[in-house]
Amino acid sequence: MNAIDTLLGRGEHVRYIGRQHVFVLIGNILTELLLIGVLIAAGVVSQVAFPDKMLAGMQVGVLVLIVCVVISLLVLGSAFLDYLRWSNEQCVVTDRRVILLRGIFNTEAVDIPVERINGVELRQSWVGRLLNFGDIEIMTASESGVSQCRSLARPQEFKRAMDDARHDIERGYAYIDQRDIDAYLDVEDMLPDVDRVSHALQRLVDMRDRGLISREEFEAKKRELLGRI
């Protein structure tokens, strides 16, 4: 079970999981790998430059090489932490909220209920449009005001998933648990035919009044139900 699954509520479903673009990770790691290469080269050169010089009973070249190797291992560890940080940083859209996950050892989770989102802004440079990444700013009614997802891969898909979740909340589609639907259908099956049709008609009227179905769909379903009596 991953970190996202432990945060989901009953009947809550993930719509989209966004991550930073892989070029963010590559950029960080390439810099560190370049530094490791420079350190190793410096250690090798020191063997040639100081073949006979001694310091504290050791050849200077060997001492420099050891120092370079130790620093290289530390930089390699930093590169691994960069990967873990990139892998664990996620922007998740569910049918109820947006969850911003960060952290390696101590996970930080920021919840933004969909109904509190006032607006979403997408920013892309020309490089971002070319490589398909960008920054997402989420304007909310909370004290923090603005939450950001930086250098997000496929930001249009993330924004679309968030807009769809907001739309469904406004239309009343969200917060429907499949177990509740199954329980409702079980009750329907136990009712007599007339009562079952009457109950279904009441549900249709409610769905029409809430704008979940059109008037034409309502009339078609009503005729279908009345034909069962």
From TrEMBL:
Keyword Iron: no
Keyword Transmembrane: yes
TM spans (from-to): 21-50, 56-81
Pfam family, one: SHOCT
Ranges for domain YdbS-like PH: 91-160
Keywords of the record: Membrane, Transmembrane, Transmembrane helix
All residue ranges annotated as the SHOCT domain in the record: 200-226
Matches recorded under InterPro entries: SHOCT, YdbS-like_PH
Name this polypeptide is given: Membrane-flanked domain
Organism: Roseiflexus castenholzii (strain DSM 13941 / HLO8)
Phylogenetic placement of the source organism: Bacteria, Bacillati, Chloroflexota, Chloroflexia, Chloroflexales
